[in-house]
Amino acid sequence: MSLYDKFVDNKRLRRFTLLVLVIVLIYLFRGMMSLFLLTFTFTFLSVQLVRLVQRKFPRVRPIWVITPVYLIIIALLVFVIANYVPQLISQTAKMFSSLQKFYESKEVRSNPYLNVIYNYLQQINLDSQIKGAITQVVNYISSVGAVGFNIVISFLLSFFYSSQVEQMNSFGRQFLDSKYGWVFSDLKYYGQKFVNTFGVVLEAQLMIAIVNTALTTITLLFMQMPGIIALAVMVFILSLIPVAGVIISMIPLSFVAYTVGGIRYVIYIVVMIIIIHLIETYFLNPQFMSSMTHLPIFFTFVVLIVSEELIGTWGLIIGIPIFVFFLDILGVHSITKNTKKKRIKLKKSL
């Protein structure tokens, strides 16, 4: 038996080797990370929608499900860009301006409690950090064309895949019978693991972010806070960060609340964040995540810190799903069939 045949027969070794090669390829193409992740996210959600409809109407072709949905999304995007993006930019600028004025006001320095915070912020050079953050925002806005291009391409790719999902699956199965079918068999194995962990966790975190944003926005409306659109967008983005996102959002919300209603409004914000965090911890996570991602908070924060250092901003969003994916591969923490059934029952109940 040749060395190649021995390698192919050793399933554990060949799968480990293939996984390493895939990681190396992803690292080499890390500049296209946004395109890959956006395409996967759009495609996963689209295919889930197709399967949901086909469970009730089996004869419906995917293209008849996807086409009207994508047309509605495009129409909504055009409406939002034309009507709300200018308001978002204006409200964000006003929010930064009001926070800067509040930070530099005499009221902060005369208040003994706020003065402690002011001195601490001086020690960490908040001014320079704000300027650096503003510079990053300007650089991000200047590269919005590239970001928009990635979103458009990802949107189109997800549409083509979802509308022909049956043909794509049939075409993919042909590779399993090829000369190097073992390669594609192992890729299929990792692909199924990837979808069952990464996709499900990402979908669940998206649902949690939507619920958190809705609850926060309703509370902010009752408090008559300024810049609701900008604050809602900020809360939604931060809510995509597991566990830490809700806590991080408390800092800017507290500053804005103090400029509007003083310490009383800050207390309202803190109480709101605590309630939302309790809802997320004891209701949303058990319901949406089920039993597959009950990770200790220590591991959650460590994974977020390490993934942000390795991947960047995307790491805060996809760090936990990737970690769960590797746990699944190692056999430490996997998604069982019972978990999938719970997800289906949950979706039906919703």
From TrEMBL:
Its main location: membrane. It comes from the Bacteria. GO terms for biological process: transmembrane transport. GO terms for cellular component: membrane. The chain crosses the membrane at residues 16-43, 63-85, 137-161, 204-222, 229-253, 265-284, 291-307, 313-335. It is a multi-pass membrane protein. This is AI-2E family transporter. It comes from Companilactobacillus alimentarius DSM 20249.
